[in-house]
Write a structure and sequence with these properties.
The mean pLDDT is 92. The strands form three sheets. Strands 1-6-3-2 form a four-stranded mixed beta sheet. The protein has two domains: 118 residues, Udp-n-acetylmuramoylalanyl-d-glutamate--2,6- Diaminopimelate Ligase, Chain: A, domain 1; 60 residues, no CATH class. 34% of the residues lie in helices and 19% in strands. Strand 4 and strand 5 form a beta hairpin. It is of the alpha/beta class and 185 residues long.
Length: 185
């Protein structure tokens, strides 16, 4: 697959050109006192903060996904992979929060032709595949409403609420309950 074609399709699907205000500059400044990540970043990434972060080859053979990238994830990727992530930085429990990717990870991305694409607000606010929406639908909620927008230029919000006819005990076992109801119908 051509990286440019994949990125163009992802940019269109997630409407990255419309995103305003999903600003990661303060997070980057605090995590990267020496901003080596800029040596690897795609021109125009800084300030837009969504889309292709690291371009490392014209072709990709596979894509992998994660919520938070990490040095361990980058180290595990085969060459010519497209890493797709919701966030542009790691989240580490042992440091209780965001963590930078090491220079070595950026060097590996470049050296092994591993490209890195991420969308934060465009994924969280997506009308079909936002994580909050998928959880609400999976739990069988009806009358869904979106709220809590985290960026401008995109419809909806990063949180989805709805109505449920299940008790708390049924909600805990929602899949089994829905299957029983389908069998009874």
């Amino acid at each position: 697959m051509k990286l440019d074609a994949v990125c163009a399709a992802l940019d269109a699907y997630f409407r990255t050109a419309d995103v305003r205000g999903d600003d990661w500059s303060d997070v980057y400044a605090s995590l990267y006192p020496e901003p080596y990540w800029r040596e690897f970043a795609e021109p125009g990434y800084e300030g837009h903060w969504n889309g292709l972060l690291v371009r490392s080859g014209a072709e990709v053979d596979r894509a992998v996904t994660c919520v938070f990238p990490s040095d361990a994830i980058v180290a595990s990727l085969p060459p010519r992979t497209l890493l797709f992530s919701e966030h542009p930085i790691a989240y580490e429990d042992d440091v209780e929060g965001f963590a930078p990717l090491a220079r070595e990870s950026f060097e590996r991305l470049r050296g092994e032709e591993i490209s890195f694409y991420h969308v934060h607000a465009p994924l969280d606010q997506h009308p079909k595949i936002a994580p909050s929406r998928l959880v609400a639908e999976g739990a069988g909620l009806g009358g869904l409403e979106e709220y809590f927008p985290i960026a401008e230029g995109l419809p909806g919000g990063a949180a989805v609420i709805g109505n449920v006819e299940l008790t708390l005990d049924e909600l805990e076992h929602a899949d089994a309950v829905r299957l029983r109801r389908a069998e009874d119908a």
